[in-house]
Specification:
three-stranded antiparallel β-sheet, two-stranded antiparallel ribbon, DUF742, elongated, 123 residues, 5 helices, single chain, DUF742 domain-containing protein
């Protein structure tokens, strides 16, 4: 997996060379419904149109199921920008998405209160 500092978009001294809004082409909303916990995975289909280097880096991370949040972290980009990049990849058929599974059982209130009590005792 490529580390963000290994990519062409970062410089050790100057930091990020390309602003996040430039990476997404100024777009702020993804075309696909993506949650931070949505899982994405490469389909094996190569994009027909030429995409930017950020798209290629994101696609290279999708060899096995990975969350949108993890991709954003690996790319060193805000989650909103990562969602736009990933939605581009969904639109061209390069990746598929799966919504996070919902919890069928509600959270046990007594368990949460016990955790909160334990945290308060440590402070």
């Amino acid at each position: 997996m490529p580390a963000p500092q290994d990519g062409p978009l970062l410089d050790d001294a100057a930091g990020r060379l390309v602003r996040p809004y430039t990476v997404s082409g100024g777009r702020t909303r993804p075309t696909a419904a993506l949650d931070l916990l949505s899982l994405v995975m490469a389909t094996g289909t190569a994009p027909k149109e030429t995409l930017g280097p950020e798209h290629a880096l994101a696609l290279s991370l999708c060899g096995s199921p990975i969350s949108v949040a993890e991709i954003a972290a690996h790319l060193g980009l805000p989650a909103a920008v990562a969602k736009v990049l990933l939605s581009d990849l969904v639109d061209c058929g390069a990746i598929t998405t799966r919504a996070p599974r919902g919890h069928d059982t509600p959270t046990d209130r007594s368990l949460l209160e016990a955790v909160l009590d334990g945290l308060r005792r440590r402070l």
